[in-house]
């Protein structure tokens, strides 16, 4: 609904629910990567909408954690690499030191 109507309260609620869902996934569980990615995507959307750098930093941290759960050959590894690379590139626009890592990913 946030995507169609732009109500920030919907996005905030989605983030709260994604955080709750993440607590239901065990640390190290491969399926946890999906919950981490979902939360990171919502935080990224909020950064894009509101510009809070903490949201972007947290999204990157969650994307890194999700990637760590997707070893080489894992079905979601390419998507996880792309998400992390994209967010690092976004942060590069604010902090130049992230460009090298974004290119490597």
Notes on the structure:
The chain has 105 residues and is an all-alpha fold. It has one domain: Alpha Horseshoe (Serine Threonine Protein Phosphatase 5, Tetratricopeptide repeat). The chain contains six helices and no strands. It has helices at 2-5, 8-23, 32-50, 53-68, 77-92, 99-104. The N and C termini lie far apart (31 Å).
Ordered list of secondary-structure elements with their pairings:
Blueprint: H1 2-5, H2 8-23, H3 32-50, H4 53-68, H5 77-92, H6 99-104
Helix pairs in contact: 2-3, 3-4, 4-5
Protein name: Anaphase-promoting complex subunit 5
Keywords:
Serine Threonine Protein Phosphatase 5, Tetratricopeptide repeat; 105 residues; TPR-like_helical_dom_sf; mainly alpha; 6 helices
Strand content: under 5%
Decide which structural class fits the backbone: mainly alpha
Helix percentage: over 70%
Q: Indicate the radius of gyration in whole angstroms.
A: 14 Å
CATH architecture annotation: Alpha Horseshoe
CATH topology: Serine Threonine Protein Phosphatase 5, Tetratricopeptide repeat
The largest pleated sheet is described as:
none
- Overall tally of structural domains: 1
| CA(first)-CA(last) distance | 31 Å
Number of helices: 6
What gross morphology would you assign?
flat
Mean pLDDT: 90
Helix/strand order, N-terminal first: HHHHHH
Unreliable residue stretches: none
**What's the CATH class, please?**
Mainly Alpha
- Strands, count: 0
Protein name: Anaphase-promoting complex subunit 5
InterPro entries: TPR-like_helical_dom_sf
């Amino acid at each position: 609904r946030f995507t169609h109507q732009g109500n920030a309260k919907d996005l905030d609620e989605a983030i709260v629910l994604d955080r709750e869902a993440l607590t239901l996934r065990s640390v190290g569980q491969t399926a946890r990567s999906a919950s981490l990615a979902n939360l990171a995507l919502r935080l990224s959307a909020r950064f894009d909408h509101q510009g809070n750098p903490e949201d972007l930093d947290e999204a990157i941290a969650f994307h890194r954690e999700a990637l760590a759960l997707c070893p080489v050959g894992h079905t979601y590894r390419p998507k996880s690499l792309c998400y992390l690379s994209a967010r690092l590139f976004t942060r590069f626009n604010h902090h130049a030191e992230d460009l090298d890592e974004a290119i490597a990913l």
